[in-house]
Specification:
Strand order of the largest sheet: 4-1-9-10-11-12-13-14
Oligomer: single chain
Number of helices: 10
Structural class: alpha/beta
Distance between the termini: 36 Å
Helix content: 25-40%
Length: about 375
């Protein structure tokens, strides 16, 4: 089966979905790789139902009060990174159906994500996920088939089995499977950030995380961290993981997040920001994107954690995974509201996020960010 690429228009600047702020401006230097973050994985078309009062009951019909469609899967992370102004490159397979065309255009043209290393697979239909959000959680049903391998790895644009030069790579570790490209990327100087999927086998064998040897940071959730480390609380799990990876970050849901730097012994913890959650789909990906941004910009550990948590909190107030990610204008609007509410906003919250005064853009974006809508697109008038 042949594969090919759609026409690719490279982004005009850091993340066209962003308001023009380059968070890495202060650390860029001649000779740096053009790409800030490289990702690879599966792109899904996400169809999200919200406003459900409870989980669907067998034999009945449930009506959702809200619905949205957007690119999903690895697109969640790629979009979140691009909207924060990072030059993002994604290598993925896209179906040559209407779903695949919509996802390609939404990412390349809508978000400014570089898809030069992606490909279109004739006759392969796009993977689809239906997500149902209720009671602050979501249930997902997915369908898809693994894409056939490309005829030439990554279309011949770089060495087979190795990521292109980039400041960082984000990987999702699969228990028991080695990601061969991580070692090559690390040798090239890329900083590797990784999370991990749920271990369906129930083994939770620490040996299955062999890829951590190439990683700078590991960002599991609390349940995953505790199971792999055989510990009883997330903070102990973070300390244990920091023995294997330079930086361990554990997300704790409503409790916030904690981190331990295994090189310096520094630790940090930030509480979660209370918001009215509409849809939690993709919030973990947005958290990772926020943390990667702060790390590449050389922010202090506590500021990175706080920024990641804020980005995730803002995302759950919108439909969908990828298109729920905030840009700098949304972050600035939140901070302006907190600062204006001297009496209502806790002093601790204002202190925690005071660093935003130094990094936020001075001018607003020119156009609104795309958000998930109930269909994959409307026909435009002739």
């Amino acid at each position: 089966m042949n594969s090919g690429r759609r026409d690719v228009r490279p982004p005009a600047g850091p993340g066209t979905g962003s308001p023009g702020l380059d968070p890495l401006a202060a650390v860029r230097a001649d000779g740096d790789p053009h790409t800030d973050v490289y990702l690879t994985g599966t792109v899904f078309l996400d169809i999200i139902f919200t406003g459900l009062d409870s989980a669907p009951v067998r034999g009945t019909e449930s009506w959702a009060r809200g619905m949205g469609s957007s690119p999903g899967g690895v697109a969640n992370m790629a979009t979140a990174l691009a909207r924060l102004g990072l030059r993002t490159s994604l290598a993925a397979a896209f179906g040559d159906d209407m779903y695949g065309e919509y996802c390609w255009e939404a990412l390349a043209q809508g978000e400014g994500i570089d898809l030069a290393l992606s490909r279109t697979v004739p006759g392969w239909h796009s993977p689809v996920t239906v997500s149902m959000a209720y009671e602050g959680e979501r249930t997902m049903v997915s369908h898809g088939h693994e894409a056939p391998p490309p005829e030439s790895a990554f279309n011949g644009r770089h060495a087979p089995g190795c990521a292109p030069p980039s400041r960082a790579c984000v990987a999702s570790l699969v228990p028991g499977r080695r990601e061969g490209w991580l070692g090559c990327a690390a040798e090239r100087g890329s900083r590797i950030f990784a999370d991990v999927g749920w271990d369906d086998s129930g083994r939770w064998d620490p040996a299955d995380l062999a890829g951590l040897e190439h990683c700078e940071a590991f960002l599991p959730n609390a349940e995953e961290a505790m199971r792999y480390t055989r510990t009883s609380n997330p903070r102990a799990a973070a300390r244990k993981l920091a023995e294997r990876v330079p930086l361990a970050v554990v997300t704790m849901g409503a409790e916030g997040a904690c981190a331990v730097d295994g090189r310096t012994g520094e630790s940090a913890e930030v509480p979660a920001i209370a918001v009215d959650a509409l849809d939690p789909t993709g919030a973990g990906d947005v958290f990772v994107a926020g943390f990667v941004t702060g790390t590449l910009a050389d922010w202090p550990l506590a500021d990175r954690l706080a920024f990641a948590g804020l980005s995730a909190a803002l995302s759950v107030q919108e439909f969908g995974g990828s298109l729920s990610a905030p840009g700098w204008a949304e972050i600035a609007a939140w901070w302006q509201q907190i600062r204006a509410c001297e009496a209502g906003a806790p002093a601790a919250l204002r202190r925690q996020y005071a660093f935003l005064d130094e990094v936020l853009p001075t001018a607003g974006r020119l156009s609104p960010l795309a958000r998930a809508v109930p269909t994959i697109g409307f026909r435009r008038p002739a």
